[in-house]
Amino acid sequence: MSLTPDPESPPSPAAMPAEGMSRRQKTLLGIGTILFLGVLLAVAVQHVMAEVNFGDVLAYLEALPLSKVVKAIALTALAFWLLTLYDLSALIYLKKKVPYCTTAFAAGCGYAISNNVGWAVISGAGVRLRAYGKAGLSAGDVAKVVVFSTTTFTLGLTFTGAVGMIVGPHPVSVLLKIPEVAVQAAGALMLLGLLAICVITAVTHKPVKIWRWSIQLPSWGGVVSQITISSAELVVTAGILWMLLPVNVDVPFVSFVALFCAALIVAIFSHVPGGLGVFESIILLGMADHDAASSILGALLAYRFIYYVLPLAIAGLSIAIWEIRHHTGRFGRAADRLRGRGP
């Protein structure tokens, strides 16, 4: 998805005092909404956490079978490979040729960082700028890759969550305390929205103008590809946590995927780094009727380490090695030139 400013558009509202006030008011409203939701969430979580015995949490972690841990790590590797396809599809759309090893490094490290830090558009851009810049991409190209990848994730999250809400609405119904039919209706509306997007991309081949930006939409096939890649990645990621859950928690996988997507959405909008605590709270609230809060929290802690901490450590090591090799090569070439043997 390519974004370019429209030269015929009116000046940016940032230059207008009245609009500037409106922007500040919107910012304050956003902060107030986040704080309000945070208070509501804290009250609800306090009720759930009253049922948690931290001794039982530690006991569950100690008793977690090694086979489950190995499978979870393998699924994490698969999930991160699917994440590299976000960037790969963006580069194909932008018609930029970058070696896959570079794409895998930039995307894998970028997502490992943004998953933990939050603010994916910003936090994951640094390593992409370094890696893709060496491959000949401009800062503008990298920004387009990030926007395209974020759009891919949003489309997949909407589709996966909608299907889960329609087929298995119970956990989301428990979370929101609304009838299951209302959850299914919301899921159906989400699917209709995605269908509308697909129709628009199928019949519209000219850039779409939104405010002062001209957006070149991908083809219908491109949108379907985005949804497929992101949905597959989300299903695999949800499968990591689902597999780590205690055996006495009998929740259908499709229903769990719906709750997983809801937890991701709340965690993202909370702006808490990595959704730490927020994501776990939503999962606990949605599974409150299973009477296994301690074991579920143990599974969540194992998931947090395997999917968040472990990839972050690997990314940090990979970036350090990459930087050392880059600087070593540069210093070696400089030394050769000083000796008169370099180019």
Q: Determine the N-to-C terminus distance.
A: 41 Å
**Strand fraction band?**
under 5%
Describe the strand arrangement of the main beta sheet, using strand numbers: 1-3-2
Look at the structure and give the mean pLDDT.
84
Shape: globular
Major sheet description: 3 strands, antiparallel
Give the count of structural domains: 1
Helix-strand category: mainly alpha
Beta-strand segment tally: 3
Query: What order do the SSEs take from the amino end to the carboxyl end, as H and E?
Result: EHHHHHHHHHEEHHHH
Subcellular location: Cell membrane
GO cellular component, one term: plasma membrane
Membrane topology: Multi-pass membrane protein
Keywords: Cell membrane, Membrane, Transmembrane, Transmembrane helix
Q: What labels describe this entry?
A:
single chain, 343 residues, mainly alpha, three-stranded antiparallel β-sheet, transmembrane, transmembrane helix, L-PG_synthase/AglD, cell membrane
Task: Tell me what you see in this structure.
The chain has 343 residues and is mainly alpha-helical. It has one domain. It contains 13 helices and three strands; from the N terminus they run E-H-H-H-H-H-H-H-H-H-E-E-H-H-H-H. The protein has a three-stranded antiparallel β-sheet with strand order 1-3-2, with helices on one face. Helix 3 crosses helix 13. The model is unreliable at 9-20 (pLDDT under 50).
Short précis:
With 343 residues, the chain is mainly alpha-helical. It has helices spanning 17-49, 54-63, 66-93, 100-117, 120-123, 125-134, 139-167, 170-176, 180-203, 220-244, 253-270, 278-286, 293-339; strands spanning 2-5, 208-210, 213-216.
